[in-house]
Design brief:
The complex is a heterodimer. Chain A contains 15 helices and 4 strands. Chain A is mainly alpha-helical. Among the domains of chain A are: 28 residues, no CATH class; 191 residues, Orthogonal Bundle (MetI-like fold). Chain A has a two-stranded antiparallel sheet. Chain A has a two-stranded antiparallel sheet with strand order 2-3. In chain A, a hairpin with a 2-residue loop joins strand 2 and strand 3. Chain A starts with a helix and ends with a helix. In chain B, helix 6 packs across helix 12 and helix 9 packs antiparallel against helix 12. By secondary structure, chain B is mainly alpha-helical. The two termini of chain B are 22 Å apart. Chain B has 16 helices and no strands. Chain B has 2 domains: 60 residues, no CATH class; 213 residues, MetI-like fold. Classes of the chains: A mainly alpha, B mainly alpha. Chains A and B meet through helix 1, helix 6, helix 7, helix 8 and helix 9 of A and helix 1, helix 6, helix 7, helix 8 and helix 9 of B.
């Protein structure tokens, strides 16, 4: 296809992606170097029969004037990145000097909002991704063994958790697991502890969200693995059966090597999706004990007094860097393949 | 995979059946339970005293005189203005699907027929764009949209969703167009057609299976989106998913949690029907990127 024709065919979609994906990333980058204006204060002298007092009040008129003149805020450089709500450089230095043991230091650092969110996000990825792969694979193997006739409805039932939006999926589970729901109430009875609930401990909340993540993402892994299983050649398996290989050996030495590329694909996609975990935190109303990076950005953007564009942008940039680190191995590999192919 | 030689022991078969039934229960029961509970009053579905009330409908019987009530639905759809949210969802979905298919088919066709290096890099860029968390993009949109005063209205959201959706649509349709033989449109080109004519008369008639799959995924993205719609639309223009969240926020009102339950059922039911109907396309779309490589 000539370059000119390609250009006209690709222009609309290319324009959409540049304007609404490329530019916003740049806009986020610029915003992250600015912070909202400080409020202008003025001294007001108030005199009454008992004498005069000087008080400091916010000058609303001046403040809004400055805001209008420079809506982006004041230039802050890397100030937002290093402040307490993000990388917290000063705080970490202080903790390092003040705390006595390493454990205490880690304890202090993990209480800072950004690190708290980072640790939750990474924990979520670390637990959900491998379990999704494992569960998805087992379901695929198991469904692959049932009679072809009834597979259709079974597949439909299996993919339900995936097709609902995460907010709805987490709500549906939350309403069952909550202390007033069917599962929560029964666990309370069973444990004989009327105060036991999802919100009562941080660990329980984290476990619930991780279980939700596995429930929500496994169907995707299942679908891809199931399709891949259909392409496994039969001859080597039959040969292995004749050679007396056990079921487990057949899976390990024939099926798994065959679908290996697909496994990396699923792992990558679910890692990317898990890294942006956000809606379940709202669905489970778990803001108190579990915050993710995406949730921090959302929280800044729905701030009631003044939207913290700068702060949200700084967290966004660091999230993008995180995604870049996750994607780097894949990109480097494709680039190498591309170079050798030339 | 029914291997002639592969004989399964009865024990294995039983184990397999039990496993599948357990998994299906885990996967489906929450939805069935929510559907069942949406016809009860709050005191039953969120029972403080006894969860069995949700089944025996103890309070529903006292409050409404029947075992099932549709109060939650009628209230959410009228008083809760869920009709408005569903109207907005329909508008957003229809426009997002049609626009993104229009842009996507043209772009993906060009990518699949190009032998230049830049086609590869564009696909890579699309992959990176696909990985961007939506919330980071939204934090980039908000400020310029406020300044341009286009925040809060449906057209902005539609355009944003189309753009966010493009990378995935491009990849999906690219791998689909790769399976359409090149000879088809090449012969048309030899006969004197332009590329646009070849696309219009040769490719368009055969592209519908791929387009349906891509359309389904655009639809699911637009229908299910929370991040973009919640932050870029004002209260008036909210679609279904942010609306459900807004019902949760106002917990003081006794009925509102049940509104959320009925709204969840109302929003999920059409989606389930659709997937039931187009199950094969959904699965082929999910595996397109993986199996074909």
């Amino acid at each position: 296809m000539p370059n000119k024709t390609f250009f006209w065919f690709f222009l609309p979609t290319g324009l959409a992606m540049i304007l609404f994906i490329g530019l916003p990333i740049i806009s986020t980058g610029i915003q992250s170097f600015y912070a909202q204006h400080d409020q202008v204060v003025k001294e007001v002298k108030k005199c009454d029969p008992f004498g005069c007092t000087v008080s400091i009040v916010v000058d609303n008129e001046e403040t809004s004037k400055i805001r209008e003149a420079k809506p982006l805020g004041k230039f802050n450089g890397f100030g937002t990145y290093t402040d307490r709500n993000h990388l917290a450089v000063d705080e970490i230095k202080k903790f390092w000097n003040e705390t006595e043991s390493f454990g205490a230091f880690v304890d202090q650092v993990t209480n800072l909002p950004f690190y708290k969110a980072l640790i939750f996000t990474l924990t979520y990825c670390l637990f959900v991704t491998p379990n999704v792969l494992l569960l998805g694979f087992i379901i695929a193997l198991s469904l692959n063994a049932v009679a072809r006739k009834i597979r259709g409805p079974l597949i439909f039932g299996t993919i339900l958790p995936m097709i609902v939006t995460p907010l709805v999926g987490s709500l549906v589970l939350f309403w069952m697991i909550d202390s007033q729901g069917i599962i929560g109430a029964n666990i309370q009875n069973l444990m004989n502890d009327p105060y036991l609930s999802l919100k009562s401990s941080k660990t329980l909340t984290w476990i619930t969200i991780i279980i939700y993540g596995i429930w929500h993402h496994s169907p995707f892994a299942f679908v891809v693995f199931y399709a891949a299983l259909q392409t496994v050649p039969q001859e080597p398996i039959e040969a292995a059966i004749i050679d007396g290989a056990s079921r487990f050996q057949r899976i390990k030495h024939i099926v798994l090597p065959h679908i290996y590329p697909v496994v990396t694909f699923v792992a990558l996609i679910s890692l990317m999706d898990n890294f942006r975990v956000f809606e379940p935190i709202i669905g489970f109303s778990a803001e108190g004990s579990a915050q993710s990076l995406s949730w921090l950005i959302y929280d800044n953007l729905v701030n009631e007094e003044v939207i913290l564009f700068g702060s949200a942008a700084a967290t966004s940039m660091m999230t993008i860097i995180g995604i870049a680190i996750l994607l780097a191995p894949v990109l480097i590999r494709t680039w190498k393949e591309f170079k050798t192919a030339r | 995979m029914d291997y002639g030689l592969d004989t399964k022991s009865t024990r294995l078969k039983t184990f397999n059946t039990i496993f599948i039934i357990t998994w299906l229960l885990i996967a489906c029961f929450p939805f069935i339970w929510t559907f069942w509970g949406s016809f009860k009053v709050r005191a039953d579905f969120f029972s403080r005293s006894d969860w069995w009330y949700a089944i025996s409908a103890f309070n529903t019987l006292i409050e409404t005189g029947g075992k099932f009530t549709t109060n939650a639905y009628t209230q959410a759809w009228t008083e809760g203005e869920f009709w408005k949210a569903s109207k907005n969802t329909i508008i957003v979905t229809v426009f997002v699907v049609s626009i993104s298919l229009f842009l996507g088919t043209l772009g993906a066709y060009a990518l699949s027929r190009s032998t230049e290096k830049y086609a590869f890099w564009i696909l890579m860029a699309a992959l990176i764009f696909r990985a961007m968390p939506h919330i980071t993009l939204v934090s980039g949109y908000l400020f310029p949209f406020f300044e341009l005063q286009i925040w809060g209205i449906l057209p902005t959201t539609i355009v944003v969703l189309v753009a966010i959706n493009q990378p995935f649509t491009l990849w999906l349709l690219y791998s689909f167009f790769k399976t359409v033989p090149k000879e088809l449109d090449e012969s048309a080109l030899i006969d004197g057609c332009s590329y646009f004519q070849a696309f219009r008369h040769i490719i368009m008639p055969v592209m519908w299976p791929g387009v349906i799959t891509a359309g389904l995924f655009s639809l699911m993205l637009a229908y299910n989106d929370f991040t973009v719609t919640a932050l870029l639309l004002n209260q008036e223009n909210h679609t279904m998913v942010p609306k459900i969240q807004s019902y949760l926020g106002t917990n003081q009102h006794e009925g509102n949690l049940m509104w959320a339950v009925s709204a969840v059922v109302s929003a999920t039911a059409p989606l389930f029907m659709l997937v039931m109907f187009f199950q094969r396309q959904v699965i082929s779309g999910l595996t397109a990127g993986a199996v074909k490589g």
